[in-house]
Amino acid sequence: MTEKLTKQQRFKSVIAWFEANMPVAETELHYKTPYELIVAVILSAQCTDKRVNIISQAFFEKFPTVQALAVSSEEEIFGLIRSCSYPNNKARHLLGMARMLVDEFSGIVPDNIDLLQKLPGVGRKTANVIVSVAFDRPAMAVDTHVHRVSARIGLTWRAKNPLETERQLVEYIPENRLAIAHHWLILHGRYVCIARKPKCTECGLKEWCRFYNKSKMAE
Known about the structure:
Elements: H1 7-21, H2 34-43, H3 49-62, H4 66-70, H5 74-81, H6 87-105, H7 113-116, H8 124-134, H9 144-153, H10 162-172, H11 178-191, H12 210-218
């Protein structure tokens, strides 16, 4: 059945399932302000949200504002984030990000994707997360979960990189659902459609999933 679906039908069915079964989907990172979110997202690269939430608690006690972070040092930052992945790079990025925010943006996190990408440590994925989560703007952030799950289900086709995945998803997901769709796909990839052994038998999307239906046909 799934191979006979048009792209529009597949997207419509998948979105309807998520709306019915996951009406609330939010980031699992702990944050209170756009500044805290940008720090958390930079820390989250190749690191679990659980670990980031542990690290960020002490981090924000030490650096409650971007101004406080901007006058710190890489060594001081490293001491607080050493238990996450790539702490040297992240310490450098966090300090550079804070200093640029203070020097060029009056300490205010911009709500513009292009401006955000000027900040050290902020690529397109991070920028999309910031504008969608902190500012509730329509944007589709693509991480490894979104990239993998979209391809498996059949929402994307032969997307070679995150940007291609983003473009294909944005084409078919209604603008007002983009922000939550990002979380739907991440959470689905984190807990059900996991990388090595996806839990297909308990997945509510298998009726429309290209990966599952191809696997069944191969049995």
